[in-house]
Write a structure and sequence with these properties.
single chain; about 325 residues; alpha/beta; Rossmann fold; five-stranded parallel sheet; four-stranded mixed sheet; about 45% helix; about 15% strand; binds adenosine-5'-triphosphate
Length: about 325
């Protein structure tokens, strides 16, 4: 009986869903009082307080909300809303999100490996796509973690059997991405991060047009060269080639979605920027997998996609 009265009263006062959050539209005192009296609710606990507060100058919105909160439980209020609007859906507002594909590129020595290593420690939700390379292992590098170190013959066999998402011959050594790990990670719904040179980034963006591409830079060419020298991994002739290539690569910044500065001594700052970009990109509405919901559960303001997005085959 009481629930029916509550429902009826709330309907007359046109309370929206979040009445207890004080978002009730203004309602003139006289009309509200008349409604209460008509419903025989003027003497219900709470309605007196509501009236007193109204007279003391509290806005009708606050007073009505306060009266509701004092008199009726959340469950009762929900039932009132359902009586007006039909059953409230408990389906998740965001059914699932498409994984993000992040491409990190930038000149040799800028710090791609360094930022990705720290980013991985910060974000276990990222699958770092391990590149295969025919170059020799550097001190401290771990097979299957930093790279897959394979012979030139093995690499050429992969190229022949089309097992690579992209590959290139860089500074006389093969570099490329075995397809399987990427497709498996995406199928699991895991975000993936690629570390690629300009050419590789172009290929991956062509294959995954929704990939988010980030170009990493040092504060200057001089800072970049100093980093390369301090790394002590390249003889002088190879280093000069890398710096020449870096000059050409800098011409491609405009092809990328974001540019991040990896400032000397502030690796953490660059990692934080990357983290923020990935977090924001993950929440883009076009990543919502509406096809995981029944059409009746779609929010009314969002039209169901005419064609469901499909994972692009490589
Ligand atoms: N913010 C930074 N400040 C100082 N040194 C840095 C910074 N970021 C990276 N480094 C150092 O610079 C050197 C180059 O970094 P890293 O090897 O990660 O570059 P890379 O872009 O992966 O290079 P490559 O493409 O040649 O593999 C490393 O010795 C690394 O420790």
């Amino acid at each position: 009986m009481r629930a029916a009265n509550v429902s009826s009263l709330l309907r007359q006062l046109r309370y929206p869903y979040a009445t207890w959050q004080c978002s009730v539209p203004a309602s003139p005192y006289a009309a509200a009082k008349r409604d209460l009296t008509k419903q025989g609710l003027a003497s219900l606990p709470g309605s007196q307080g509501w009236e007193r507060r109204f007279r003391m100058g509290t806005s009708s919105q606050q007073a009505a909300a306060s009266a509701s909160a004092e008199s009726y439980s959340t469950a009762e209020m929900c039932r009132a809303v359902e009586a007006e609007l039909g059953k409230l859906s408990t389906a998740p507002s965001i059914p699932a999100l498409e994984p993000v594909k992040v491409v990190i590129s930038g000149p040799s020595g800028v710090g791609k490996d360094a930022v990705i290593k720290d980013l991985q420690a910060k974000r276990p939700d990222l699958h770092f796509v391990v590149t295969a390379t025919s170059r020799p292992k550097r001190p401290g590098e771990v097979e299957g973690v930093d790279y897959f170190f394979v012979s030139k013959e093995q690499f050429e066999e992969w190229i022949r059997s089309d097992e690579l998402l992209e590959w290139a011959l860089v500074y006389g050594e093969y570099k490329g991405i075995p397809k399987t790990q990427v497709l498996e990670a995406l199928a699991r719904g895991t975000n993936v991060i690629f570390r690629l040179d300009i050419q590789g980034a172009q290929t991956v963006r062509r294959k995954f047009p929704d990939a988010v591409s980030i170009f990493l830079v040092a504060e200057s060419e001089a800072a970049l060269v100093k980093r390369l020298i301090d790394r002590k991994t390249e003889p002088m002739d190879k280093m000069i080639t890398r710096v020449e290539t870096a000059r050409q690569e800098m011409q491609h910044i405009g092809e990328f979605d974001y540019v991040v500065l990896n400032k000397d001594g502030d690796l953490e700052g660059a990692v934080q920027q990357l983290d923020a970009i990935i977090t924001a990109e993950r929440q883009r509405t076009h990543r919502i997998r509406w096809h995981d919901s029944a059409p009746s559960q779609l929010p009314s303001r969002v039209a169901a996609p005419e064609k469901l997005p499909e994972m692009q085959k490589c």
